[in-house]
Amino acid sequence: MSYGTIDDLCFYEVVGCPIILPDRSILGYVEGIKRHRGGCELWLLRTEDGREIQFPIYEQLIVECNPYESVLIDPPEYLLDMYREGRHPENICDIVEREVASYRKKAA
Fold it and tell me: Domains in the chain: how many in total?
């Protein structure tokens, strides 16, 4: 089963699920959810090496969501680079909002 929009998804349906990148590698596993001070919601992920990643939940970044199984995402490469380097963006909500707005302009 997969969902058309992230709004249809309940958190408990993805807790423990791997978050998979386009190359089929695993970014991390969903451990929690929280609201960022910038206004967006974040999945709290745990990587295989034990690091925590706070990943923004935006429908435009989610390619496929299979509740209780996995979530395939396609985030901007610079965002992945920050996470791989162990850095967290200061205001992830603003960064992703700009990316989403850019995506919408290209799609129009």
Answer: 1
Domain hosting residue 56, numbered range: 6-107
Q: Which pLDDT score is estimated for 50?
A: 93
pTM over 0.90: no
Q: Which mean pLDDT values do the consecutive 10-residue runs of the chain (108 residues) have?
A: 48 87 95 79 90 84 87 86 77 72 61
Residue type, 9: L
3-state secondary structure of 62: strand
Determine which helix (DSSP H) or strand (DSSP E) holds 92, and give its type and residue range: helix 92-107
Alpha helices, DSSP H only, in the chain?
77-84, 92-107
8 A C-beta contact, residue 88 and residue 79: no
The answer as to whether 78 is a domain residue is yes
Looking up residue 91, the CATH number of its domain turns out to be 2.30.30.240
User: What is the CA angle 40-17-4, rounded to 5?
Assistant: 60
Q: Are 3 and 65 in contact (CB under 8 A)?
A: yes
